Structure formats: C-alpha cells, structure tokens
Amino acid sequence: MRDIKLPMSEADVKSLKLGEMITVSGLLFTGRSRFHIRAAEDNVFPPIDYEKINCFFHVGPVMKQEEGEWQVVSCEPTSSIRFERYGADVVKKFGLRTLIGKTTMGPATAEALKEVGGVYLSKIGLSGNALRDQVKKVHEVHFLEELGKTECTWVYEVDHFGPFFVAMDSEGRNYFQELAEEADSKMPEIEKSLGIPEDYTFTEVNG
Asked: For the residues of the chain, what is the DSSP string, one character each?
C-alpha cells in the first residue's frame, strides 16, 4: 500500500486507481457544514495557504486541551454526501486535490475533482480513535470561538493516515456509483434464479 505525501501532486493524483487503498502523510485541514456554507455563500474561510494545505478532511473531531496544547480525542470522518450541495464550489474555489470523508459524494463534486485534478478518499473499517493516533500534531485552529470545536477548522499534521480507498478518481469515476450499476445489472439474473417473476413489484414503505 502506498503512502502519498500531502499536498498531492498532479502526477500523484493521476496515478491513483479507483478502489486503490492508500495512506497520506502531511498537512490537512478539517471542516463540516459551516465551512462549506460560509465558503460557498459568504466567501468566509480560514486564512490557510491552500496550495500547501490542500487536503480537506470532512470531520467534526472531539478535541481536548492539555497543558496549553490541543489533542485529538477522536476524529471519525463524517458522511460527505451531505456536503454535495456545496462540494463542487469548494473544490474549485480552493483547487483541492484531496478530499477525505465517509460514504460518497455526487456528480457535481466528481466533475469538479476531474476539472482541478483531484480525488475523493473514503474510509473503510476504521474508527475515529484509530485515526487519532495518526495525527502527530495540531498546528492551527480557526474560528474556534465563533463555531466551537466541532465546526471550526483544525490543521493537522498526519503520518500514514488511513488507510482510505479512492472512491472518486481524477477522471470523474465514482466507485459507489459503478458498484451500484454492476449490482443492478445482475439483479434480473438473481431474481430469475430465485423464481421471482419479472413483473413482481416490491412493497413500498412510506415513513
């Protein structure tokens, strides 16, 4: 498994294959809903050098302060699909090469990553406590007083952070979308083998 240095180069991004497992090492920044909304709608964002710190980690971490220094208690990635409304704007605004989160994102973000030359990495089989131990230093915090520890932006230095898998590549392919399409294509054969009629309809459940 490869460890990719942050910020990722264009060559690194293009070399990554859909579904490939990797770790990353270097500097990244965190954010959740408030980061996306403020950056996209209000043009308010942390004063970070986004060329040097170019990896956006979707997380609302649990943090504590000990002897004047911030420590990560847990940093479980949050579901990235809920940021799809703003994802493409944020990727293009900051020229982001790397997003890290959980689950997937939608077609607008995939197209934006293709445009800037970026990838989306998704967690698998990891806990926030395991990732905590891969954060070597907390370098900065932005908007702490205004947004609180969960929604503010932290800058972490990480070492062999992950592993994550490439869920969206630089060509705009989406691992989860292709997996769903493959599953759908096999359903008629599976239903036939189980004796389910072609015209059978499943019961719809309304919440």
From this structure: -EEEESSPPHHHHHHPPTT-EEEEEEEEEEE-HHHHHIIIII-------TTTS-EEEEB--EEEEETTEEEEEE-PBPBGGGGHHHHHHHHHHHT-SEEEEBS---HHHHHHHHHHT-EEEEE-S--HHHHHTTEEEEEEEESHHHHHHHHSEEEEEEEEEEEEEEEE-TTS-BHHHHHHHHHHHHHHHHHHHTT--TT--PPP---
Q: pLDDT by residue (tens digit) across 197-206?
A: 878 877 777 7
Residue 132 tokens read as 């905590």
Measured between alpha carbons, how far is 62 from 105 in angstroms, rounded to an integer? 24
For residues 84-94, average pLDDT: 97
Tell me: the pLDDT tens digits for 144-176?
A: 999 999 999 999 999 999 999 999 999 999 987
Task: Name residues whose C-beta falls within 8 Å of residue 161's C-beta, 6 or more positions apart in sequence.
Answer: 23, 24, 25, 28, 131, 134, 135
Region of 2 (left: φ > 0; alpha: ψ -120 to 50; beta: rest) is beta
Q: Report the alpha-carbon distance of residue 136 to residue 156 in Å, rounded.
A: 7
Q: Which amino acid is at 150?
A: T
* Tokens coding 186: 């096999």
Among 85, 86, 89, 87, which residue's Cα sits nearest to residue 99? 87
